[in-house]
């Protein structure tokens, strides 16, 4: 693959060294997040080295670093998600629990629909505190 690409570069009259060609070939054949991560690392390398393109050995090192970072990121996301599922699955779903389990869903919905509204300010039915006629607006108690 490198020989064929090298020949096509030469045929096009591009004055690239063999090392530069290998680095470009590697870079252009990557896809997705790994390509973006490698591009960022190469940009940082070039900024730190007077805009010189990195040799293939450094491109391989940067590629390895980008791949490892991506794998660590993915594994940490998976572990975080698994931890969350474990925490939620281990919660107590009894009636005095603050978390409603799947078996409580219909009961909660029925209570919410069937329960009459009672104001906690005046204790009268059919309205709630924000709509209470006895609420003193703007006057301190």
From TrEMBL:
Domain CCHC-type span(s) in chain numbering: 119-134
GO MF annotation terms: nucleic acid binding; zinc ion binding
SUPFAM superfamilies, alphabetized: Retrovirus zinc finger-like domains
UniProt keyword annotations, A-Z: Metal-binding, mRNA processing, Zinc, Zinc-finger
Cited PROSITE patterns: ZF_CCHC
Listed GO biological process terms: mRNA processing
Domain of life (superkingdom): Eukaryota
Coiled-coil residue spans: none
Protein name: CCHC-type domain-containing protein
Protein source organism: Puccinia sorghi
């Amino acid at each position: 693959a490198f020989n064929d690409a090298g020949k096509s570069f030469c045929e096009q009259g591009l004055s690239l060294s063999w090392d530069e060609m290998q680095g470009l070939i590697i870079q252009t054949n990557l896809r997705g997040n790994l390509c973006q991560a490698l591009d960022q690392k190469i940009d940082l390398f070039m900024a730190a080295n007077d805009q010189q393109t990195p040799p293939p050995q450094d491109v391989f090192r940067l590629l390895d670093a980008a791949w490892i970072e991506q794998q660590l990121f993915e594994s940490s996301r998976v572990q975080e998600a698994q931890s969350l599922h474990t925490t939620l699955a281990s919660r107590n779903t009894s009636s005095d629990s603050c978390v409603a389990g799947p078996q409580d869903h219909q009961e909660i919905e029925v209570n919410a629909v069937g329960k009459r509204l009672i104001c906690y300010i005046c204790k009268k039915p059919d309205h709630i505190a924000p709509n209470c006629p006895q609420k003193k607006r703007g006057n301190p108690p």
